Amino acid sequence: MIGDLAPAGGVLRRIFHNTVRLSGGHGLAALLGIAAIALAARTLGSAGFGELVVVQAFALTVAGICRFNAGGVLVRFGAICLSSGRRRDLQGLLLLVLLLDLGSAAAALLLAELLVAPLLPLLGWPPGLLGFARPYLVIILFSQSATPLAVLRLLDRFDLAALQRIVLPAVRLAGVLLAMPADGGLWAVGAAWLAANIADSLVAWGLALRELRRRRLLEGMEFRLRGLVRPHPGLWRLLIAVNLRGTVGLVSSRIATLLVGAMLGARMAGLYQLALQIAGSLERVAEMVRKALEPELAHLVAAGALRRARRTALRLAATATALGWPLLALAAWFALPLLTLIGGPDFAGGRTVLVLLLLQQAAAPPSLPAATVLVMRGKVGGLLRASALARGLFLALLFLLVPGLALTGAGLAAALAGWFEASWLSFLALRALRGGGRRGGGAAPVSVS
User: Fold this and answer.
1) What is the gyration radius of the CA atoms in the chain, in angstroms?
2) Percent helix, strand and coil across the chain, each rounded to 5?
3) Which of 87, 190, 306, 374 has the most CB within a 10 Å radius?
4) Mind listing the pLDDT tens digit for each residue in 310-342?
5) Residue 410 and residue 356: Cα distance in Å, rounded?
6) Do residues 227 and 92 make contact, with C-beta atoms less than 8 angstroms apart?
7) Residue 379 forms beta bridges with which residues?
8) What is the DSSP letter of 156?
9) Whole-angstrom Cα distance, residue 105 to residue 114?
10) Domain-wise residue ranges, the chain
């Protein structure tokens, strides 16, 4: 069972075993995702692709600001419920997360519809793009919630989580292929992307509910609101802090694309987004390890085995760095061929920004366990401050460098801010796991100080 305490080497082997289980789906998803992006970029050209990605970035920015994504929180408190046999408390936790997902998604869609027209001049969009953006914003309702995949990780179904990862890029690729005979314009490609998000969301929730029913964790579930949080002290503070960090994290992804589009035009936003997509696809290796680490670390922290958690985190970071840096260096060396192969010659101007975004990604392997450690230890105050200051630094550098250096300035801002955040988070994580063997007691209380 996942909750059983094994020797440190056994925990690490289990993490890598689950990473391998995820890698099949993530690897295929990465390939399908790049193929879908390449097809869309070549079909629309840099200008049309830029228009699509700025609308997508606006929709997912509003969704990210409003929606509660409680994946890590669900794993942390859910692991405690499972280890102590508190099925009723787990059901209440699941109900709370579901209500937050549905309510925040509806609020995000309403807010986006209200804001899109007034913000149009500030975003630098051509006026005709509003007609496409309004119906496309329904994608907010189906932007991927972290909850169903967190359920699968909590229940040690990494195989199903890997399978689900294939859905969005596969449907997106098939949709774009079908759209091409219909002229392959912005509306046709946008419809394919929207259909992919709908399928992705439905499959994720379907797999999570199926697994919960199979394990009889939904039996006798009562749909009541009173007392949902009482069995989980500190849940609200942790949930709010984690979501604030997620919102702050949008600055270097979705919001960055919007700002590049506003300052340099939709075409430059398209170049930036394609480079960001390529760099991000390589980051998925680190993300797989992080997802596999969450439930293991949650059980170690819940049992008070802090020394074992520290050793596991350090060994994992060292291994990830040894594997990740050569891969990133190879991608940087072939940056120009990658861009022209995926997007075509029209995207060759993104070479420098791609190299800089890969340099930013190089900060991820050494700091791989840091954010997970801080969430599981309840030290979300430091996590939030580090993320907020890093994103503030990114914005300051973006506005300072982009006017003179264009896309190169955006990449340089991302690289400097990324290394600043990774260094700080690593320091905080090591401090959070300092000392404490199995006698150290249970999970730490949530602290936002």
Assistant:
1) 21
2) 80, 0, 20
3) 374
4) 887 787 788 778 878 988 999 999 999 999 999
5) 9
6) yes
7) 447
8) T
9) 14
10) 21-440
